[in-house]
Design a protein that fits this description.
It contains 10 helices and 2 strands. It is mainly alpha-helical.
């Protein structure tokens, strides 16, 4: 990577990190572009070189955090001796939930903004952006599993929505039960989703 590209990446990272800090502390609606560029230490014009508006930045912040969270889980998965696809997915889910338990502001921010549009356009990608790193890692697991699914993107979306929705109150308030008590039941449902989407050979 050349120096120009390196500086560009540093500015993008600075804007993404500043936006995440401000969105989680002050809220999305109360954070202005001026706040973000001031916090990042870049000129306002620089913002528009990389992002069309605050909503575009928010989507990229979510994708950036999703990549970071998922890739940390994938890195730890690589150290395990898990060959079964279902076991791999459950390991990733548990790892991600532990990250959320350690950073509840991150959990709140991510849960508020998950949607099909996010999964489709940000994780899976589109013609302009291409797929995100998290989806590429997930797709790699799919390929190595040797299994075929009706629609892997829909399956991924269902798992994300289920885990996000069910774990939110458990992690934040230990309601209806603490996460450790909830996980075995979540595992059962995730296994069911995976099996119901699988196409028999």
């Amino acid at each position: 990577m050349g120096k120009i590209e390196e500086k560009k990446q540093q500015k993008i990272e600075s804007l993404l990190n500043s936006a995440f800090t401000l969105f989680t502390t002050n809220g999305f609606n109360k954070t202005s572009i001026s706040d973000i560029v001031t916090h990042a230490g870049v000129a306002k014009g620089t913002f528009y070189l990389y992002f069309s508006d605050k909503f575009d930045l928010r989507n990229k912040v979510i994708a950036h955090q999703a990549d970071r969270i998922f890739l940390a889980a994938v890195a730890d998965l690589a150290k395990q001796d898990l060959q079964d696809f279902e076991d791999q997915v459950l390991f990733l889910v548990d790892h991600i939930l532990r990250q959320f338990e350690q950073d509840k502001m991150l959990m709140t921010f991510m849960s508020k903004h998950l949607s099909w549009a996010f999964v489709k356009n940000t994780l899976v990608g589109n013609a302009q952006s291409g797929p995100g790193k998290a989806y590429l890692a997930f797709h790699s697991l799919l390929e190595h599993s040797g299994l075929t699914f009706r629609d892997p993107e829909i399956m991924l979306y269902m798992i994300i929505e289920f885990v996000s929705g069910v774990s939110y109150n458990s992690i934040l308030y230990h309601q209806p039960v603490p996460p450790e008590d909830l996980k075995p039941r979540m595992h059962d449902v995730i296994r069911y989703i995976i099996r119901s989407e699988q196409i028999s050979a």
